[in-house]
Design brief:
17 strands; about 40% helix; EC 2.7.2.4; AsparK_Bifunc_asparK/hSer_DH; transferase; Aspartokinase; Asp_kinase
Length: about 425
């Protein structure tokens, strides 16, 4: 058994859907489970719909109609060209348009009947329709090509608690449902979504579709998972920021988790953990060049080739905190500071403490910096520098360090045997 996951970029339009079919035809579909995300920017469109809905702006209904039209345009284009006539005929004769229309009407009904004021609950009931619509289209197009995938509702497979927008998986019930419904089948399902014990839709949080693929692989004892992207694999740095990046042919599970922790756009640790537990390989490959080797994440050496890896996080806040009476910054102070950081939902990127000061670099994702500073300044002296960048080099070398430090105003430098971090102003 193997699992393929296709993200929104791979199915953003009719050409993308055609290409996904070509990838599966090229790679083979015996013993295959397929996970598909919402098309292109459809999740963003659904989030806009939620915003208008919660403002009691009835234009959300016309926005839903516009969302339906975008999906229908893709269907019409798939019906028109890009395949043999017998494929096009089978696709046109499917019940797809009726199914899409019924799903859109169900979405409207859900929103009109809703009585809940819980934003996270409403979010999950609505935004999940992006995955439902995309998988209906892709599954229908596969079947028109005589690739007999069975469309599965992920809400019947992934069982979770009621923590909407970041639900935790009930592994016992989920494994039972997946084994019962998916074993030995060629199937296609949605990423990102599940359901609680009452049947309400839940979503799995950050990188939810990758996580879905890992959950399925774990339950089905798959040989490997392949995540298909528009890049050749995992690179040692973002090519838009760093020069002369190289493809990482192999990464260990542990190293991939380390890179993700420091902010690299690799695979989220929650996706890796179930795969690592059963030693299931994770492959990252290009849907534009499916025969290319890509990157394999598995047990073994940290990196192949062994090379410095570069990560940058921008628009962070650098805080220097000290006691007003120049006393020591002890455990009780640090505990207090972290409590305030947690209340303000600050994500910590780097920290360093001395006898009389505590230095930290944080990301203000929820625009709560003013609130945080007000609380801290009541008790401490605080110097805040906004708009800083945090550079991380894993497996650093002298040349790698020089290439990053050269010409930059470095506020803080922290180095361990494997990792160098620099807070840079401006």
């Amino acid at each position: 058994m193997k699992i393929f996951k296709f993200g929104g970029a791979s199915v953003k339009d009719a050409d993308g859907v055609r290409n996904v079919v070509q990838v599966v035809q090229t790679m083979g579909f015996d013993g295959l489970g397929i996970v598909v995300s919402a098309m292109g920017k459809m999740t963003n469109a659904l989030e806009d719909i939620i915003t208008h809905y919660q403002k009691n702006d009835n234009s959300y209904l016309s926005m839903i109609d516009a969302l339906f039209s975008k999906h229908l345009d893709i269907v019409v284009e798939l019906e028109s060209n890009g395949a043999s006539e017998d494929v096009l005929v089978r696709f046109r004769e499917s019940e797809l348009k009726k199914e899409l229309k019924a799903t859109i009407e169900s979405l409207k009904g859900t929103m009109l009947r809703n009585q809940s004021k819980n934003h996270a609950f409403i979010y999950d009931q609505v935004v999940s329709h992006g995955e439902l619509l995309s998988t209906m289209i892709v599954a229908s197009y596969f079947n028109a090509h005589h690739i007999p995938v069975q469309w599965m509702d992920a809400r019947q497979l992934i069982k979770t608690d009621q923590k909407y927008r970041d639900a935790a998986v009930d592994w016992k019930e989920t494994e039972k449902a997946i084994k019962s419904n998916c074993s030995g089948k060629l199937f296609l399902t949605q990423g990102f979504i599940g359901a609680d014990e009452n049947g309400f839709t839940t979503t799995l949080g950050r990188e939810g579709s990758d996580y879905t693929a890992a959950i399925l692989a774990y339950a089905l004892d798959a040989t490997h998972v392949t995540i298909w992207k528009d890049v050749p694999g995992v690179l040692n740095g973002d090519p838009r920021v760093f020069d002369n990046t190289v493809l990482l042919e192999q990464i260990s599970y542990r190293e991939a988790i380390e890179l993700a922790f420091y902010g690299a756009s690799v695979i989220h640790p929650k996706t890796l953990q179930p795969l690592q537990g059963k030693q299931i390989e994770l492959r990252v490959k290009s849907f534009l060049n499916p025969k290319a080797p890509g990157t394999v994440i598995k047990e073994g050496d940290a990196l192949q080739p062994m090379t410095p890896c570069y990560i940058v996080r921008n628009n962070l806040v650098f805080l220097e905190i000290s006691a007003r009476d120049f006393s020591f910054i002890g455990e009780h102070n640090i505990s207090d500071i972290f409590h305030r950081l947690s209340e303000s939902k600050m994500q910590v990127g780097l920290l360093q403490n001395s006898a009389i000061s505590f230095t930290i670099c944080v990301e203000d994702k929820y625009n709560k910096l003013a609130e945080l500073l007000e609380g801290l300044e009541a008790r401490y002296k605080v110097n805040a520098v906004t708009g800083v960048s945090l550079y991380t080099i894993r497996h650093h070398s002298d040349n790698a360090i020089e290439s990053i430090e050269n010409g930059k105003d470095v506020l803080l430098r922290q180095r361990t045997q494997e990792t160098l971090q620099l807070v840079v102003k401006g």
